[in-house]
Amino acid sequence: MKVLMIGDIFAKPGREIFKKNIEYLIKDNEIDFVVVNGENTTHGKSISKDHYDFYKDNYVDVITSGNHIFKNPEVLQYIDKTPDLLKPLNMYKSPGNGYVITEKNNKKICVLNLIGNTFMDPSNSVYETMDDFLSLKLKYDILLIDFHAETTAEKIAFALNYDGIITGFVGTHTHVPTADERLLPNGTAFITDLGMTGVISSVIGIEPADAIYKQKTGLVRRFQPATGKAQLNAVIIEIDEKTNKAISIKRISI
Question: What residues does Fe cation 1 bind to (predicted)?
Fold first, then answer.
């Protein structure tokens, strides 16, 4: 089985490069299951119902998110009706699911969304949340985690702590792809951060002038999504059909 996990899709340029490439990515790489991080889909923050439908019409099985998921009030109106749109499980009391189990190719695949505790908005302990989740002893063959966090150290430490329990672990949120994709000692497929799917010549997706103005002056300016040439960042995780263990993880940028 092959799983495609795509990094934070940012605004219209991210949606367009995703749409342009998803069909051939699936066909050329014989992809069985697709996960995207959609928390920056709609104008750079959160995801509208129309854009949720856009993903479901374009081969996406599960949509993960992060700290921006509720920045669009529309999400509150539909997230309880869309179990495959996740919010971080350890986010303080809020609607929506933190994980979902779906069946594909006779495999039960659990996708779990978590958010980091370091330099992020307050949330429940990610370790306690993970331990509580594991104590449920849910039945699944494959466990995929999108860990939405700020620091590389927090992502690496968490993945190593649950190495061998998690099938595939990807970090999101920083929008900068890391070059450390590998199988951890006990077999978890790992990458610190997938990176962003959005405009290359931007400041993590936003118009450079807006970010520079704020850094120079300290004054607030409404950030606008950048325009221009975009890049899609993702990984392909291959999983053994018999053992349900990760065989490889491959980073791709388009």
Answer: 8, 39-40, 175
- The phi-psi region of residue 75 (left if phi > 0; otherwise alpha if psi is between -120 and 50; otherwise beta) is alpha
Find out whether 146 and 172 touch, Cβ atoms under 8 Å. Answer: yes
Q: What is the pTM of this model?
A: 0.97
- Residue 220 has a pLDDT of 83
Which tens digit of pLDDT belongs to each residue from 12-71?
Answer: 999 999 999 999 999 999 999 999 999 999 999 999 999 999 999 999 999 999 999 999
Q: Which residues carry a binding-site annotation for Fe cation?
A: 8, 39-40, 67, 148, 173, 175
Residues contributing to the annotated binding site? 8, 39-40, 67, 148, 173, 175
CA atoms lying within 13 Å on the CB side of residue 189: 27
Q: How many CA atoms lie within 13 A of 9 on its CB side?
A: 26
Number of domains the chain contains: 1
Active site residues: 68
